[in-house]
Design brief:
alpha+beta; Helix Hairpins; Immunoglobulin-like; 34% helix
């Protein structure tokens, strides 16, 4: 999760987020190189005493400042397009979960298990236990197995919402009457936090998303307990 005075992204918890972090570093280095080069040109032009008023154009310079930016754009576009295709690729998910946005809470339905669904409300500040995070804890977490492709179908019942988990590199709009989907794989066990990222009303900031990634045997035990509780 995020921490105070954090400057960069959260640590990656999925292969997709790792790719996004690598692309961010790649693009940032290109930005630094271009900025340094432009600064050098500006300083050189200001400090130089050499002038030639007879030069009206230069074909070589025209070619250079046309071809060089095109190469830079290709170096940025190709990895960007690769990541976009990876984000949309959904191959044989092991588990499908439907997430519905409401004013102001999330509800989850495990479509591969009959009658397994629940609402997830934010834990009020006065009910927090030591070690829990204000505005981020939920009374029911979305539990998933690690190292398994997970597909999440996302929609909303009333107004626009957005299902976002930064450490997974996932942010999908929840639109009434429309079903969006995303997929991810969690690399390691842990608890991942997110929040609704679309202004959806007065309690927009009070509908957190909490994902608990556990090993597969623990997930199977959890599903058995939940199905016994709700049947």
């Amino acid at each position: 999760m995020a921490h105070p005075s954090q400057l960069g992204f959260q640590d990656a918890a999925s292969p997709l987020m790792e790719e996004l972090l690598h692309f961010h570093d790649h693009a940032l280095m290109i930005v630094f190189l271009i900025s340094a080069f432009v600064l050098y040109i500006i300083v050189a032009m200001i400090t130089s005493k050499l002038t030639d008023k007879l030069i009206l154009d230069s074909q070589e310079i025209e070619v250079i400042w046309t071809v060089l930016p095109a190469i830079v754009l290709i170096m940025i576009a190709l990895p960007s397009l690769r990541i976009l295709y990876l984000m949309d690729e959904i191959n044989d998910p092991h588990l499908t979960i439907k997430a519905m946005g409401h004013q102001w809470y999330w509800s989850y339905e495990y479509t591969d298990y009959d009658d397994l669904g629940f609402d997830s409300y934010m834990v009020p500040t006065q009910d927090l236990t030591p070690g829990q995070f204000r505005l981020l804890e939920a009374d029911h977490r979305m539990v998933i197995p690690v190292e398994s492709p997970i597909r999440v179908l996302i929609s909303a019942e009333d107004v626009l919402h957005s299902w976002a988990v930064p450490s997974l590199g996932v942010k999908v709009d929840a639109i009434p009457g429309r079903l969006n989907q995303t997929t991810f794989i969690v690399n390691r066990p842990g608890i991942l936090y997110g929040q609704c990222s679309e202004i959806c009303g007065a309690n927009h900031s009070f509908m957190p998303i909490v994902i608990e990634a556990v090993p597969l045997p623990h997930f199977e035990n959890w599903t058995s307990l939940m199905m016994a509780e709700y049947t």
